[in-house]
Amino acid sequence: MPQIEGTSRHQMQIFALEQAIAADNPVRVIDAFVSTLSLEKLGFLIKGEGDEGRPAYAAEMLLRLY
């Protein structure tokens, strides 16, 4: 089973998340920083596909939680 990746931030839903967050909001710095990290080199385990339970959340997505 693949990891849960979340939805695209550019996908239009009721509102676009990119438009709802100001350009100078600190969460954009966190997002950019996490994008530059090599999670495997930092010791994060990238889970493979399994048959039991629900898919794991992607470590990159969890790091972006602020």
What can you see in these coordinates?
This protein has 66 residues and is mostly helical. The chain has one domain. The chain has helices spanning 17-20, 27-36, 59-63. The radius of gyration is 14 Å and the shape is flat. The mean pLDDT is 81.
Count of DSSP strands: 0
Task: Describe the sheet with the most strands.
Answer: none
Rg result: 14 Å
Q: What class, by secondary structure content?
A: mainly alpha
Order of helices and strands: HHH
- Tell me the overall shape: flat
Low-confidence segments: none
- Percent range for β-strand residues: under 5%
Attribute tags:
mainly alpha
Condensed summary:
This protein is an all-alpha fold and 66 residues long. It has helices at 17-20, 27-36, 59-63.
Topology:
Elements: H1 17-20, H2 27-36, H3 59-63
